[in-house]
Amino acid sequence: MVSYRTVAGRGQAEIVIRKSRFIANVAPVASEEAAWAFINEIRAEHSQATHNCFAFTVGNVQRMSDDGEPSGTAGRPIFDVLEKQGLSDTAIVVTRYFGGILLGAGGLVRAYSQAAVAGVEAAGVAEALPAVDLRARVDYALLGKVQYLLQQHGALTLNIDFGEEVVIDFRVLQDGQAAVTQELAEASAGRIVVEEVGTALVGPDLQPIHRN
After folding, report:
1. Which DSSP letter does residue 212 get?
2. pTM for the full predicted model
């Protein structure tokens, strides 16, 4: 896994230009299917709108649509916002309710771009960081020391199971895995064995980056 920039959550923003309403809805999307589901959700919500234009990027998949606006005046400007801000796994839908005044090609490009930027600002931008989920089996006598070490490394405790021994599931950033594993081994004279049980892309709080 590699880090990348995406939006932290859903966001919505509205601008009005010469009586036309432009409503931007933005969301993190983990797959192409999720992107289309989000787009169709906004289309249904704004089924009476003049246009529902969009752009999204998920992995190597990139799509955009002018939805009836003159070619290149809506989908491309929205996509350009994604590209300029370095966003991945992100979808933007800009809905337009026509206000009766033509904006011209240049005016449309500016309007869709401004709406998309406002939507991204409302959603917030975060870096998705690679993390690992680890499991440690700990003697009760070492529990306090282990919990202290995990706290020092900024680990997120996911689950604790109290049985014959304590089984702790926790998450750390990938680049901190080696250090925490080594310190746990040293603190227990090699008795604590740490195994990797999963991976995730997370925000600074170690929670999964996609929250929609």
Report:
1. -
2. 0.72
Handedness of CA 161, 167, 172, 174 (dihedral sign): negative
CB 136 within 8 A of CB 184: yes
Spans of the chain below 70 pLDDT: 1, 209-212
Q: How far apart are CA 20 and CA 111, in angstroms?
A: 9
Range of the domain at 86: 4-123
Residues 45 and 149 in one domain: no
Distance separating alpha carbons of residues 106 and 95, to the nearest angstrom? 18
| Domain of residue 102, CATH code | 3.30.230.30
Tell whether 108 is covered by a domain: yes
Which is nearest to 54 in space by CA: 30, 82, 31? 82
The total number of structural domains in the chain stands at: 2
Express each pLDDT in 73-102 by its tens digit.
Answer: 999 999 999 999 999 999 999 999 999 888
Question: Buried (b) or exposed (e) across 136-159, using 16+ Cβ within 10 A?
Answer: bbbeeebeeebbebbeebebbeee
Q: Which of 88, 56, 90 is nearest to 75 (CA)?
A: 56
